[in-house]
Specification:
The complex is a heterodimer of chains A (about 110) and B (about 400).
Chain A lengths: L2 H5 L23 E3 L3 E6 L2 E6 L4 E5 L2 H9 L6 H7 L7 H13 L3 E3 L5
Antiparallel strand pairs in A: 1-5, 2-3, 3-4
Chain B lengths: L2 H6 L7 E7 L23 H13 L4 E6 L8 H10 L3 E6 L6 H8 L4 E6 L5 H8 L3 H14 L6 E6 L7 H10 L3 E6 L6 H8 L3 H14 L31 E4 L4 E3 L10 E4 L5 H8 L1 H7 L13 H4 L4 H5 L16 H12 L59
Parallel strand pairs in B: 1-2, 1-7, 2-3, 3-4, 4-5, 5-6
Antiparallel strand pairs in B: 7-8, 8-9
Helix pairs in contact in B: 4-6
The chains are: A alpha+beta (about 110), B alpha/beta (about 400).
Chain lengths: ~110, ~400
């Protein structure tokens, strides 16, 4: 693991992963957790480890864990946010965190994308 | 709550678990943290090791740092490596390279989720072999060549920073670059045999500063295992958690299954339990009294008054313990010199009650291997035997023989 990853994630961000950039992330498409990624629940949220990149990152809230874990059950990211009951005023922040996770390869677009 | 505070209170499972597979080692490095050399007869069996791996999988410990001793001298090492990877436990193992011939290098190159870390404590044979023993530099370099040729990819070169090699940091980087490896440098600690070599090898205060400046200037893609957080008091925080993870996010399983708070604290005082006890590792991690204590509020003692306390958190518990400093006192290498002052005071006081703790275990080879080029030290007897050899094997034991047997 890169120990620098452990210290990453400035305060205020809800995911301690790669710098959140919008990139190709499209919340209107279906996503899932990458096959090489394992999610471990913790009191603050979850630890996320990518066996492929050896990258350790953090999901800093429990709702974010619910969103990430349920991505595969929804036709798009918005659906997962809805189901996890993320309040409207926090949606922007969550989308940014998810974009960061997509950029880091933690979550990936699903094959069944239209 | 900040993320790092969650870490302070402990996690469901460790993030960084070190597992020393064996105390057996072909070398006798003078700074060995685990005083390794001889195999412990109580070593976990292959089946017991597999049971530990099963448990790590259940606990979602994503990877383990395997060390020793020299882990590859265990005949079941490769079997355990494959077993761990097949059970979602990635492996990073540390080795001096003794078993990494071309065939093993090729095997490793074909294995996913394994990282290899070659130990090297000098960028030249002279500096390295002084600490790790004759021939160890050549062994390490050969292993690196084999991994490079096999196309393993980015392995790690792991360096313990000492007084003798701190000037070679750029040279280590060059060696890493030559073999497509990543450099990892860690702190020398007075644990195990390191307690005996501490005074000779730990970097001087000027060298601590030099090391810090190097890390800030050139440390971008150099791994440190978070081990230099005590240097953060110089100013800029170094990357990493900057917190003692012992018993919170870090722990050690030793070859006989004992669980210690950290890899640098193999001592009864930091022993939390054993994986062989009911409930196994999971119960030790979650319920040991020692770990509960380490996850509770810590007293920083006089250090809390220091303006740098937030940066260094009082430094390394093990470094204090094995130099005889109180755990709520300064680190022996406190950048403000508080540790040195405390140590000097202890020496002046000459308190007969004060005993520097010794490691509880010592598996060192009973004889230190010598340089084969040196003459064998032995004294020939010049005393003449006082009589001819007894032909009877019981000769000289006459008084203890049953009556009726004539001797001599």
């Amino acid at each position: 693991m890169s120990t620098t990853a452990a210290g990453a994630g400035p305060q205020g961000q809800i995911s301690g992963s790669a710098p959140a950039g919008v990139g190709d992330f499209d919340a209107g498409r279906p996503y899932r957790i990458s096959g090489s990624v394992s999610v471990r629940p913790e009191s603050f949220g979850a630890l996320v480890y990518d066996f492929h990149t050896r990258r350790l990152s953090f999901l800093k809230t429990r709702p974010l864990v619910r969103v990430v874990e349920s991505l595969a059950d929804h036709p798009d990211v918005h659906g997962a946010l809805e189901a996890a009951e993320v309040p409207a005023h926090q949606r922007e922040q969550y989308l940014k965190a998810l974009a960061g996770l997509a950029q880091a390869g933690t979550i990936k677009p699903r094959e069944d994308a239209p | 709550m900040k993320l790092v505070e969650h870490f302070t209170h402990g996690l469901n499972s460790p993030i960084c678990l070190t597992w020393e597979l064996t105390y057996a080692c072909n070398l006798s490095c003078v700074h060995c943290l685990s005083s390794s050399g001889r195999r412990d007869p109580r070593e976990l069996s292959t089946e017991e090791c597999k049971a530990v791996i099963d448990e790590l999988q259940r606990m979602q410990v994503f990877y383990v740092n395997i060390g020793g001793g020299e882990p590859t001298v265990r005949s079941d090492f490769w079997e355990l490596l494959d077993y761990a990877i097949a059970h979602d436990v990635g492996v990073k193992f540390s080795t001096n390279g003794v078993k990494l011939d071309k065939a093993r290098a090729a095997q490793l190159a074909a294995t996913d989720y394994v990282d290899v870390q070659i130990s090297l404590d000098g960028a030249t044979a002279e500096v390295n072999d002084h600490v790790r023993g004759p021939g160890s530099y050549a062994t390490a370099i050969r292993a690196m060549e084999n991994l490079y040729e096999a196309g393993f990819g980015q392995f790690k070169i792991s360096v313990v920073v000492t007084r003798h090699n701190v000037d070679q940091l750029d040279d280590f980087k060059a060696i890493a670059d030559r073999y497509g490896a990543q450099l990892r440098i860690t702190r020398f600690r007075p644990s195990g045999r390191g307690a005996d070599s501490w005074d000779e090898l730990h970097p001087t205060r000027e060298q601590q500063r030099q090391l810090y400046d190097w890390l800030v200037a050139r440390g971008e893609d150099v791994l440190t295992g978070d081990s230099f957080f005590h240097l953060s008091a110089y100013g800029q925080e170094l990357p990493g958690l900057n917190l003692c993870g012992a018993g919170r996010v870090v722990c050690l399983i030793d070859p006989v299954g004992d669980v210690y708070a950290c890899p640098f604290a193999i001592h009864d005082q930091f022993l939390a339990g054993n994986v062989r006890s009911p409930g196994g590792f999971d119960t030790v991690w979650k319920s040991s009294e020692l770990f509960a204590e380490l996850r509770g509020p810590q007293s920083g003692g006089a250090c809390t008054k220091c303006s740098h306390y937030d940066a260094c958190q009082g430094g390394c518990m093990a470094a204090k313990f094995f130099t005889g400093l109180p755990l709520d006192g300064p680190d022996p290498e406190c950048v403000l010199g508080n540790g040195e002052r405390e140590l000097a005071k202890l020496q002046v006081d000459g308190d007969p009650q004060r005993v520097i703790p010794k490691p509880s275990l010592d598996h060192s080879h009973r004889t230190t291997p010598r340089d084969r080029r040196e003459p064998v030290p032995l004294t020939l007897s010049v005393r003449r035997p006082d009589r001819a050899c007894d032909s009877d094997p019981l000769g000289g034991e006459g008084t203890r023989l049953p009556a009726g047997i004539r001797v001599g």
